[in-house]
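Backbone-to-sequence.
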């Protein structure tokens, strides 16, 4: 089963295929602007996903770029999908464009690989644990906290759908199991939830803990690092990196490759599935 259609992924694929084709044919931007009456800035916005061409303009570009009939249908279908609105747009007042883009990419992904050095990953969090993370922010109103919690739980829908082939792999530090976010009760409930997910969805979830005894890891101190994988072979893996003061999508192939290699090294250093579940259970018993 393929991933759900996402307007963000559709827009990205459309822009990517147009840019690749232009470069493959060696078509100069000036030729496009003269043929279609665009400004150079407008075409730049098209290739960078800030603008979606009208159906008429896209049809003319398809002709100019010599796409065959099958590709034409695919590109027109991508344009239609890109014009839709994802569920996350209802919360646009809460999140900047980059975070909304992450949610859209996540919605259309085949799988996510996540590294966390201190927190349980967002896709595995309980409502109380999420709320405890957000409450210390004195600039955030309670109603906004509730909405952000709602969004985080909504993002978990694909993970909990047994008919969805979406997979989630997480490498987390042992500190994530012991940092008492929200206090012992909240953490205990969170760890029980984590253990339940691991046992209930063995084919969808692969959670690995890097124990305190690990002597080195390239991701130590890396805060949050996410790799986003897609079914479509035309779409490369993307990365998301987040710290306290900055976050964003990384699409540079070299940077993504380096992050992927580092993540794979961390995965090999981590405990296996059974040992990870045993570690989680031990932490639960300690908190009880």
């Amino acid at each position: 089963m393929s991933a759900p259609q996402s307007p963000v992924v559709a827009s990205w694929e459309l822009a990517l295929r147009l840019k690749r084709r232009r470069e493959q044919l060696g078509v100069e931007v000036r030729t496009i602007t003269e043929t279609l009456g665009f400004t150079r800035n407008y075409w730049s916005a098209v290739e960078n996903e800030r603008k979606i061409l009208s159906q008429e303009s896209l049809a003319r570009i398809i002709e100019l770029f010599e796409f065959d009939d099958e590709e034409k249908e695919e590109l027109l279908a991508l344009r239609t999908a890109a014009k839709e609105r994802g569920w996350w747009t209802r919360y646009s007042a809460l999140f900047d464009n980059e975070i909304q883009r992450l949610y859209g990419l996540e919605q259309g992904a085949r799988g996510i690989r996540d590294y966390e050095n201190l927190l349980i990953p967002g896709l595995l969090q309980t409502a109380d644990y999420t709320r405890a993370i957000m409450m210390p922010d004195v600039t955030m109103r309670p109603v906004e906290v509730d909405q952000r919690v709602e969004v985080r739980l909504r993002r978990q829908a694909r993970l909990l759908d047994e008919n969805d082939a979406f997979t989630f792999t997480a490498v987390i530090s042992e500190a994530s199991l012991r940092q008492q976010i929200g206090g012992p009760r909240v953490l205990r409930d969170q760890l029980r939830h984590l253990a339940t997910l691991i046992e209930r969805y063995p084919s969808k979830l692969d959670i690995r803990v890097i124990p305190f005894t690990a002597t080195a890891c390239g991701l130590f101190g890396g805060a949050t690092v996410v790799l986003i994988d897609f079914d479509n072979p035309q779409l490369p893996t993307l990365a998301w990196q987040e710290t306290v003061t900055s976050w964003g999508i990384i699409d540079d192939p070299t940077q993504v490759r380096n992050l992927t290699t580092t993540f794979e090294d961390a995965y090999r250093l981590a405990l296996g599935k059974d040992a990870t579940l045993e570690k989680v259970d031990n932490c639960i018993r300690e908190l009880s």
